[in-house]
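Subject: sequence -> structure tokens, single chain

Hey, anyone have a minute? Need the predicted structure for the following. Not urgent.
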Amino acid sequence: MLVYTNLVFAQSTEITGTVISGEDQQPIPGATVLIKGSSTGTVTDLDGKYSINVAAPSDAVLSISFVGYITQEIPVSNQTVVDVELEPDVAQLDEVVVVGYGETKRKDLTGSVVSMDSKNIQEANKVNAFQSLQGQVAGVNIQAADNKPGGGFNVRIRGSNTINASETVEQGGFSPGQNPLFVVDGIFVNDISFLNPADIERMDVLKDASATAIYGSRGSNGVVIIETKKGSKGKMTVQYDNYIGVKEAYNLPDMLQGEEFVQYFRDAVVGNFYSSGDFSVSAGDVNLADYMRPNELENIADGDYANWIDLVQHNGMQQNHTLSLNGGNDKTVYGIGVAYTQDEGTFEGEDYERYTIRGNLSSKLSELFSISFNNYASFALRNEGSREGLRSAYRLRPTGTPFDENGDPQFFPLQGETFITNPLFEPDNITRESRTLNYLSNLSLAFTPVENLKISSNFSPNIEFTRYGEYRGRYAKSTSGQQGNTRAEVNNRNRISYTWDNIVNYNLEFGSDHRLNTTFVYSLFMDRYENYLMQRRNYSTDEFLFYNIDAGSDLRTAEGGFSKQTLESYTARVNYAFRDKYLFTLTGRYDGSSILSEQNKWAFFPSAAFAWRIIDEEFMKDQNVIADLKLRLSYGETGNNGGGGGLAPLGSLSLIGNNFTNIGNQINQTAFVTNLANQDLTWEKTKEFNFGLDFGFFNNRLYGSLDIYHRKNTGIIFFRPISTVSGFSGVFENVGEAENKGIELGLNSVNIHTGDFKWTTSLNFAKNNNKITKLYGDLDQILFGVQAGSYVHKVGEAVGSIYTYEFDGIWQLDEADEAQAYGQQPGQVKVRDLNDDGAIDADDRTVIGSNMPKWTGGIANTFNYKNWDFTFFVRTNQGAVSASYFHISHSGGFDSTPARFNSLQTNYWTPDNPSNEWYQPSNNGPFSEPLTYHDVSFVKVGYITLGYNFKQDVLDALKIQNLRLYFTAQNPFTFTNYEGWDPENAARNSWGSAYMSRIFMGGINVKF
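Reply:
Had a minute. Here:
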């Protein structure tokens, strides 16, 4: 009986069938046929046929799936033949994309638009919304300007689109004026770091001028449209998402330690002699007692060396908690969300906290009227910590003494050296605190008097208030232990802006062949900014910090500022589709800006685009390789009213400033003209052609987009230097032209999809060539300096190219006579005499590179096996060259005094080591600048995530809808030849810099 029973259970029924496409009735080879709830499955053959054994047919359910089609589940019951017809999954093509003042289906797009949904954004688990975009979108280059918690980012879409005359130390050649326009729930904002990424529903990046022309002058650098999460119809759901992790510094430069530094010091003493032409001294001749301090000699004798970097470095914590509620009915939906984010730095005293709350309500009041109200508030507290602490830790010689005999930190670690202090004092003596409140709101009233006609009015205010407070106590480096140098500073900044859009949308269909969508917009934008700054010094106590600023007896600064600008716009857009195959978009925007001169305030920005859905043509019906094919062509113009080039409101006018002067024995107030007016200053315009191809193969198992563009900037607004004899340094003018040419590719593929296993890949690549084509008059170059570097705006070269001498090795001993002819010595940096005139001068400088990468890319791979998911993302920037302030500050650049600071480990030249890589310590010569420029190419692993979604039976038992646990490593690896902290912001001054860091975190996503 037992044998018989086993035979019964072992019996099974063979189920056969054919899987075909419901679209063209063709067989689908490679479709997956799976017995639901088990690991038993098979795939269809070339004719779409399958065969599978089922143990219990009456209870079995077949799950049939294929990429690009909707999965079907069919009960077997008593059937032995189950034929299946799969319907195409058009969700991707029917995806709604926000294009500015409206929406459209992806299949109807005529411009270049790339989207990221909430899954992609939240998968990265970033503190800052900018980070969620890094490396994810072809043609969008995002640079971290500051690695400290709460630091900023610079964004470039399709290269550099304008020239800025006021590049800053922190930007390192990047300019905030290059950033695109950010639109959050219809509100224009300058920054999106106040957003909690977990609150973002989607980002749509508008790249070509056809897509951005709807925003006219605001869209010259591209547009990023962000929609926060809204309510949804149905029973109220509660969702909680969190992560908690530990942050650590990594990719730390190799500095000299212990005996390495002592040898370096000896070599630096020799270098001092060599620099004066005395080659008689060797390292063995150096008596350390002649140069070092007593405590250093004692530490060397005892072998007691300080590792300053280990002393100041510590791990930080990062966490985020987001709670949201959504629900509604057929008439009203609502959404509420609150979140808390904390991000600690890897140097004590650096941290960032953010609290956000959002609320939205959308209601259909009647058949004619509907209303929506969106609110988003963010409060951020940022402690930037010391600017000097990290730099001091890297500068201090390991021969110094961190602690006194009682174990307390010693303020001056090197006896007699007062220039550099113990960084352990910085966290308790430096406070740099910013408190920022952001409030965004959007109130929209819509009126639908007749079918297909919608009239809406949206009022969107944005209020931003920031209070920056700074206090430097007695034992900070900048105060050097002097009470009179203690300093308090308060800077209050507030910005109030609003956008008022009045929109008319009308949709019309003529039969089955013609479809017309029209949009008309009248828009007003106002931006008002105030700031008030006060600084006082000499405080009797450090207890007040900056809260009792009046307690300082020495008033240094008391000033304020005010600016206001407005923009008025008239916009029209027409979308026409013929047979849903031939798509046309015409857009025109007429902008008036208060910034420009009286007679040039208004400009018109047109665009036209055409798309041809080739896949819908009859001649494409009989093939089954190409699943989607659309050709796009566009031309558009956008503008810049000067903000990107540094032009402030009223910057085109002559303004009056005030000062004081002595006349006789009295102080008298004076007035003077601060700048020259330019009544001819007009719009900077961007004209762009774009060719695009959207494609899909093998039932969209491989799909993507290819774009080729040519963007030309004319009338570039720039602060042109003029002779100081005039009494002015320069004037804003329309000075020249520049262009960007490039190619962008985005690919998505389903590599494997069988049974319980699925592997998908998303890849993007972009290459951009930027150059200036014209400057004013006969001038072909404008020289300028940023952060101890030399740059040029030069015809035929990229905007802001690096302009210096070409490194040609190190002068060797057997080249002493030739070096002498150039006024140099062996051991010093050799550069090329490009004009062969026997002298090195300014005429021998040339362009050696640009801080814009030659190409960028990113790739994400996702693996799913049953309830497990595994994703890793890698991004890269290649070909960029940048000034490296780390090398300027931490590789012997200040060694006129022998080895005053510690140094990066380099293969430096000595008489016994004839290196051609790095100069002799304390003997760099007059032309060492080329060694401060470095290739900053990198490959970064953005994140690696492993997650587990709990099975349905567990969810049912817990009475929840979804539960996922995951572990993520953020930025775990960086591959680069750059030797400093971070190749992404190499040009940033080490005064205020921070480590590159990685985070190991775990989290939970749960929905009730």
